């Protein structure tokens, strides 16, 4: 059975994020480190990036890190992560139901077509 390691102090809270590390054992991300990583990386989807890093570690056994190297690995991973594009996640409002000429084309689309079409 794989041994579990953690760079935590006795009684320190751990997150549910577990990584397979060098030698096949596991390492669980401490809550305190998760909080520091979140604070240092505003605008990034930290849970999604942590999951991606865990999957990468699982899929790349030859490049797995040691327990002592995990904080540095996650810091580097998050430094390279793209910020979340909040604007892309906001849906456009629906087009107004106005059809000024009775042809099924809404007014905002008609204005755009007039700019494009001669």
How do you describe this structure in short?
This protein has 118 residues and is an alpha+beta fold. It is 42% helix and 12% strand. It has a 3-stranded mixed beta sheet with strand order 1-3-2.
Q: Describe it for me?
A:
- With 118 residues, the chain is an alpha+beta fold.
- The chain has one domain.
- The chain has 5 helices and 3 strands, in the order E-E-E-H-H-H-H-H.
Overview features:
alpha+beta, elongated
Could you outline the blueprint of secondary structure elements for this entry?
Layout: E1 4-5, E2 14-20, E3 26-30, H1 31-40, H2 46-59, H3 70-80, H4 86-89, H5 107-116
Output the number of helix runs.
5
The average pLDDT is 78
Q: What class would the helix/strand composition place it in? A: alpha+beta
Order of helices and strands: EEEHHHHH
Total beta strands:
3
Low-confidence stretches: 1-8
* Main β-sheet description: 3 strands, mixed
Report strand %.
Answer: 5-15%
Structurally, how many domains make up the residues? 1
Distance between the termini: 72 Å
Characterize the overall form: elongated
Helix content: 40-55%
Return Rg in Å. 24 Å
- In spatial order, strands of the major sheet run 1-3-2
């Amino acid at each position: 059975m794989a041994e579990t390691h953690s760079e935590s102090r006795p009684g320190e809270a751990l997150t549910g994020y577990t990584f397979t590390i060098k030698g096949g054992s596991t390492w669980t991300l401490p809550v305190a480190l998760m909080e520091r990583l979140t604070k240092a990386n505003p605008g990034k989807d930290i849970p999604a990036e942590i999951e991606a890093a865990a999957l990468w570690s699982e899929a790349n056994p030859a490049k797995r890190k040691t327990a002592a190297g995990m904080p540095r690995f996650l810091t580097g991973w998050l430094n390279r992560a793209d910020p979340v594009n909040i604007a892309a996640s906001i849906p456009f409002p629906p087009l107004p139901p106005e059809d000024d000429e009775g042809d099924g084309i809404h007014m905002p689309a008609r204005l755009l077509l007039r700019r494009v079409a001669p």
